[in-house]
Amino acid sequence: MARRYFGTDGVRGIANKKLTPDLAMKLGKAAGRWLIQTNQIRSVVIGMDTRRSGPMLESALTAGLCSVGIDVVSIGVAPTPTIAFVARTGDYGLGVIISASHNPAPDNGIKFVGHDGCKLADEVEEVIESLMDVDEPGPVGADVGSHRFDRSEIAGYMDLLESVVPERLDGMKVVVDAAHGAAYELGPEILRRLGADIVVVGDQPDGMNINAVGGATKPDFIQKLTVEQNAEIGVAFDGDADRAVFSDEKGRLINGDRTIGIWAAHYQKTNELTPPVVVGTVMSNGGFEAYVTGRGIALERTPVGDKYVAQRIFDTGALIGGEQSGHLIFPRRGPTGDGLVTMLELLRVIKREGRPSSAFYDDYEPWPQIMINVGVESTEGWNKRIAVEMEHATNDLVGRGRVVVRPSGTQPVIRVMVEADEYELRDRVADSIVEAMVREMGGEVHGRVDLTYALGD
């Protein structure tokens, strides 16, 4: 079935242009009808990030849900994982998240999670889409859904966060960049509750400055600020706070790979990493892989995407998994990525080890890695058209690196990632593949990013 509205992460678009109140109301009605038809709990919890369009879309969604007989509880501005936590621990059939994550302020999105706190399966989203065009009378009187605002639902989530660090963080100096997003209150609050000495930026949202400066997707800001403030560590969240990246006290980036490596190595030493496996993606750095496998920890790779990481964690029983971007999953804390949990899990390890964050950074050296985006007329048949160059690249990199070529799911763009144990080999292989794409597919280079010490996508 063709999907008209749902993409890989909910319904996204420019608010009031593609993502209109009318569309939001239809989504609310359809999701409510699905709850009723499948005998789910007839109540929904809604939260949002700090975008100006959030309340507009929430009002429309709420109207749609209530109009078919679903009760709605709004918890206001809250991180995506907070809403997922409330959905799975409270009496709710669905959680609704209004956020466009790390995208700019004019964008917004609507994402549903089930009673288990996990994203809805593709088949369920397709059913909800099919119900959007249903036109039937709604309930009246006492059968119309109710709506209330209840911020107290967040208390249980804060208790969960506090339990992550029983050792507390008294005296640890931490710089926090909340990106003027969903964690602007809860991130600093939990650190203060645990006794940390904090400096906070990005905590003055005005509806339009979310992700504008700094945040997890622009880590240079937190790296510089951590040094300036003479802090032990810095942390930056993205707009909906489902990811976190860090800076050591020397201003060097601790991305998702490094965070997984630090965490896994620590719990292996304490005999708590059972099974000895971590989950990454095809983008996880070869230097990171060499580090963990050299310690007897297996790395399971998946395609890019948190749903693939989550599934492999479930399949293997791993205690941690995630992406270079800082989107990490700790299944004992919850089934989805959580930037605040990631922050506290890393700070706990640093506290327990009694070492500065820079000491962990020096534990391994990443392999040179580059990403080149090539715009093409069509991605169809790309692998056949550059098969010879791909074979040469694979042969050149045997035992020394990897190449991952994948078309974008939303644009006529092919992403070429090459990693090798030295820069010269990396660049030579990458250039040969890209030159073939330009020659054989009418391609045009749209940008190249050195990912060796940076974030993957």
Describe this structure in words.
This protein has 457 residues and is α/β, with parallel strands linked by helices. Helix content is 36%, strand content 21%. The chain has 15 helices and 19 strands. The chain has a 6-stranded mixed β-sheet with strand order 1-5-4-2-3-6, sandwiched between helices. Strands 8-7-9-10-11 form a 5-stranded mixed β-sheet, with helices on both faces. A hairpin with an 8-residue loop joins strand 4 and strand 5. The chain is globular and about 70 Å long.
Features:
single chain, 457 residues, alpha/beta, Alpha-D-Glucose-1,6-Bisphosphate, Chain A, domain 3, TATA-Binding Protein, 3 domains, 6-stranded mixed sheet, 5-stranded mixed sheet, 15 helices, 19 strands, 36% helix
List the SSEs and their pairings:
Elements: E1 11-14, H1 21-37, E2 43-48, H2 54-67, E3 71-77, H3 80-89, E4 94-98, E5 107-114, H4 122-130, E6 147-149, H5 155-164, E7 173-177, H6 186-193, E8 197-201, H7 220-228, E9 233-237, E10 244-248, E11 253-254, H8 256-269, E12 277-281, H9 286-294, E13 298-302, H10 306-316, E14 321-322, E15 328-329, H11 339-353, H12 357-361, E16 369-375, H13 382-385, H14 387-396, E17 401-407, E18 413-420, H15 423-441, E19 444-450
Parallel strand pairs: 2-3, 2-4, 3-6, 7-8, 7-9, 12-13
Antiparallel strand pairs: 1-5, 4-5, 9-10, 10-11, 14-15, 16-18, 16-19, 17-18
Helix pairs in contact: 1-2, 1-4, 8-11, 14-15
